[in-house]
Amino acid sequence: MYYVDPTGKSSGWSIRPQPGLGLTKVVQTLPTIESIPRAVSRFQALAALQESGDLDAVMAWANSPTTDPIHRLALENATDFSADSPTILAGASAMGWPQSKIDALFTAAAKFAG
User: Fold this and answer.
1) Considering the chain, what is the average pLDDT of its residues?
2) Are 108 and 49 in contact (CB under 8 A)?
3) β-sheet bridge partners, residue 27
4) Which 8-state DSSP code applies to residue 61?
5) End-to-end alpha-carbon separation of the chain, Å?
6) Long-range contacts made by residues 77-83, C-beta under 8 angstroms, separation at least 24?
7) What is the pLDDT of residues 43-93, one digit of tens each?
8) Structure pTM?
């Protein structure tokens, strides 16, 4: 028997209740936590952007004259993308995406084989 946070704010658990930490709900098995991939292949990234309907907007940003040419080169030539790369972070900022959007895209991208 384990105590977990019923709100999901804390991913921790305990064998004893920990009200100060929010660990008050009793469960028989610990919930699995899906890990977020930190890097994906070029194909996986583009496929996730296409599936989410964001590919055209990202390509428009990459081809904009105001976009740093290094970011354009990275998007055109990288064989893989890291979630914390300067290019990904600059593009996400330009799109107004929160970290949760980047995480969702990387999670979706990892599901594509290729």
Assistant:
1) 88
2) no
3) 2
4) H
5) 41
6) 78/42, 79/41, 79/42, 80/39, 80/40, 80/41, 80/42, 81/39, 81/40, 81/41, 81/42, 81/45, 82/38, 82/39, 83/36, 83/37, 83/38, 83/39
7) 999 999 999 999 999 999 999 999 999 999 999 999 999 999 999 999 999
8) 0.72
